[in-house]
Structure formats: C-alpha cells, structure tokens
Amino acid sequence: PGIVDEGGERHAVSEGNRGKIKVGIVSAYFCSHPVGRISLPVIASLPRDKFRVTVFSLPTKVDSWAQAIAWSADNYEANELKSEYGGRKFFSNENIYLVLTSVPPAIGAGEDEVMRRIVETDSNALVVLVPDKAETSLWNSPTSEVAYRLGPRLWCSRLLERIKEGAKEEDRDRILLLKPMSVEEKTGLIKISSAVLDFGGSITAVEALALRVPVICEEKGEVGGIGCGVNRRLGGVVEESCVGRGGEEGGEGMAEKAVRLGVDGKLRAEVVNAIDDAIVKGELGDVM
Questions:
Q1: CA-to-CA distance for 30 and 61, rounded, in angstroms?
Q2: Which of 15, 59, 98, 280 is 20 to 30 Å from the Cα of 213, by its Cα?
Q3: pLDDT (tens digit per residue) in 108-140
Q4: pLDDT for res 9
Q5: Gene3D superfamilies annotated for this entry (predicted)?
Q6: pTM
Q7: 9 vs 19: CA distance, rounded Å
Q8: Which residues contact 141 (CB under 8 A, 6 or more apart)?
Q9: DSSP 208-268
Q10: How far is Cα 175 from Cα 198, in angstroms, rounded to an integer?
Q11: Does an H or E element contain 270, and which?
C-alpha cells in the first residue's frame, strides 16, 4: 500500500487520509467578496471522512472572512500580496525581473532570448517591461492614424509579440508589458523586483542601484553601459553575480545570473548588502 512516485519509490499514506478525495480550491477572492461568502459554507460543509480540502488563496485582502476560510480548510496556502502597479497585482512567490526601457528600446534578438530563458528557467519568474513615461506622450492620445501606427503603444505591443513568439506556450503569460507609470509607481515596482535587467539604459541602472536593487547587465568586451561599469567597479560579489554575457551569442549567461539572484535569497542578500555598503561609504556616487 502507498503511493509510488516518479522515481519508483513508495511512500506510505496515513490512515486518516486513505481513500479521501483531495479537493483544491483556488481564488483571489477568499475574503468578504461574494466568492468568499459563497465558498465558506461549501468548504466547511464537505464531510471530512470523504474529502480533504486544500485552499490556495491569492488574497487581495485579509479580513474575518479570509480567516474563517483558512480555519475551515484542512490545508491553507496563501501567496502574500506584495503590491499593485500598472494594474497588475504582484505576489510574494513571484520573482520579478524588471526591464525599464525607452521607446524604441535597444532590445534585439539577444535580449529577447535573455527574457525567454529567464521564464523558462525560473518557474516563478515574471519578466516585466515598463516603457519610459517621459518618452511616451503619444501612448494614450495619438493625434493621427500615422501617429498611432508609429506611437509607443503599438510599437511596444509589437515588441511584446516578438519576444513571446519564441517562448514556450506555457511561459508566454509570464512576460508582461505594463503601461507607463508615474515616478512613484515605478520606484515602488523597482523596490519589489528581484533584479533589474539593464540592456543599456543608464537611468535604469542608477535608479535601481540607488534603491539597493541588483542590476544585471550584459557585457560586450569593454562595453556594457553604466550598469556594467558600476558593477565592475564595485567588484567582488556584485561583479561576479551581476555581470553576464548578453547579446545573441551569450544571452544564456545573463539569464543565468538573473535567475540565480532571483531564486537564491542568500546570494541576493549578499549582493544587496554589498551595494548598501558602497552607498554608505560613498563609493557608488564616485563610480556613477
């Protein structure tokens, strides 16, 4: 008796769970929302001699209804809501790799591959592209059909389609394009990101590093933008962890650096501490 896993190893099943039907219920509205109010009596009334109920919650808020649902389930798994930016909710289990780009951005085939490799390698990855608000005055108010064709909204949409084209179908929804943001929103999004991908935008690197967020850059010989320049000057764990080989021939290196920071909390903490030390000592201002 028991369950055999993919490797052929048998695991015992406790007598209390033997023969029970396992039910999983997922929602972002397990709270005072109508979905939560309807779900609570259903979850509570399922006979536990026949069912084992697991609730997976993506909470928009935590209130007395959310707590009651958690108490009524046999297992309760919740992803904490980090914040909401650009109309998109971000949760604690998501590793955000942020691309802050001008329009038109300096993103080519090599950079496309970096982003695809990140979502392919890290199952919790979100690659988030945010156009520079200062350069998107036509985003919401095209003055003519020609302006609309050439405008940032359509241009960025086509960029997103191109990036997703080579990605696996199951990974495409984790490459996102958000609308231009205010400075306050953009700052908040940078703060909750695992890393910022710098494809040559100097302002991106300065903003992220000033907020103690690692910047992953692509180095091509001695060239690589201010992000690579700062990372190389800081040296040590920052240079080792954040300088990859981007572009068509070396995209995998940059993606690997980003994912390692995203999934390895200890390594990311070391990098953040090194950046913080440089800021405290005034070294970051010197290299910028």
A1: 8
A2: 59
A3: 788 888 899 999 999 889 999 887 655 545 445
A4: 60
A5: 3.40.50.11380, Glycogen Phosphorylase B
A6: 0.69
A7: 20
A8: none
A9: HHHTT--EEEE-BTTB-HHHHHHHHHH-HHHHHHHEE--STTTHHHHHHHHHHHHH-HHHH
A10: 16
A11: helix 265-280
